[in-house]
Specification:
Layout lengths: L1 H16 L10 H10 L5 E2 L9 E6 L4 E8 L4 E8 L1 H7 L4 H23 L8 E7 L3 H18 L3 E5 H12 L7 E6 L4 E8 L2 E7 L5 H11 L13 H10 L24 H17 L11 H29 L9 E5 L6 H14 L2 E3 L3 H4 L3 H14 L4 E3 L13 E2 L1 H6 L22
The structure holds 5'-O-[(R)-(carboxyoxy)(hydroxy)phosphoryl]adenosine and zinc ion.
Amino acid sequence: MVNVLGNNLKLILNNALFSNNMRFVYNTKINNLVSKFMCTGFCQQRFYSSKRGIILGIETSCDDTGCAIVDVEGNILGEALKSQHLIHLNNGGIIPPIAQDLHRKNIEHVVYEAIKVANVSFADIDAIATTVKPGLPLSLLIGLRYGKHLCREHKKPFMPIHHMEAHALTARMYDKNLQFPFLVLLISGGHCLLAVAEKVDKFLLLGESIDDAPGEAFDKMARRMKLKNIPEYSQLSGGQAVELAASKADDPLEYKFQIPLLQYKDCNFSLAGVKNQVLGHLIKEERKKDVLADGVIPGVNNLCAGFQLVVTRHLCHRVQRAMEYVSRKQLIPLDKKTLVVSGGAACNNFIAKGLTIICDELGYKIVRPPPKLCTDNGVMIAWNGVERWKENIGMFTDFEDIGIEKSSPLGERLIEDVANENIRCKWVKLSKLNYPQNKSDD
Ligand code: KG4
Ligand code: ZN
């Protein structure tokens, strides 16, 4: 209520101070005056721009320092990305203070590089969007502080962005025909979730990971299998290495795995058990074949293939149940059934093939942004800013109290409701998914 009064007061003052054809972009004096009448904390305000709308986005939630400038039509005017991947690969995983130092070292250069490529100045930019949740706190803090610093210096509104929401909405930049509502599977290094995206800022959460996310499981297993000691894989992420090794399997069904959570009629995910099964096979093989400390087991390709297959089948099961739930509750119109797949592990072509089979069978269109947009980047943050700009939501001039959040659920939680529906699925056969040898495991 106070915010609404404040907004109205701002509009009145604005109209009084500016001529008719001069539209309000941003005015500190008005904001200061209005804020005296408004609540403490975040004050959301309306912004009007005579320009087409250009948003600068900053991403530092994990180990990529990204910045991009995107306009209201979804044109990427400029972008820059500095990955810390190789450093963390050599350290055997992300060490948060090291990630923070690298973000600190790189952020300014990355932002100015994106601006240079876009050939714009800060005067052309309407707002600054920055990832504030969820993510590694030390990493998030660098983006938050730098984003706020730019807003203060250039008198721009600040847009706090939810990293997973940004992964989901990127699909609407990639596919301009994609409309709400749609089903979305987000599979990344830190998260695994299924949701219905109803609006830019409205999601229904159907399922989430109860332990390791897919990217995390791939990374941990690749590390344990010592894949980076194979020169061809030495610079790849865990997921990329497992996918490549699996593609070379001569007996992809050699190692059998139990599909997780089969007895649970929900849409949650779990990969900790699969990880232990892989580990069991690995230790047995290492002993049997007398593998040296930094050596790789001879059957590593087959092990990767089995691992990738069980992850894919698990994801497909949960997606199929989510589709059945969506149809029971009529959450998506029959002629608009779309599954968006995004996040780093969505780069995996084998997983995508499995999901495509499910989509074909249940009449869904599948939208998967290209790898560059699936993994962390500044474009997705800027685009989320654009989506919010268009809806006139989530822009703050009083942003000092906005902080970071290590974890943050996405949208309204329907996980228990999904389980209560007790949906039994007749699993879609994934035999078409077989590796080249074409053996069936269904
Ligand atoms: O979305 P993202 O860039 O960062 C997070 O928000 O976590 O995802 C990174 C994750 C890493 O764990 C990486 O191993 C995984 O995405 N990844 C893949 C593939 N490419 C990257 N996982 C499976 N298959 C791939 N081809
Ligand atoms: Zn991500």
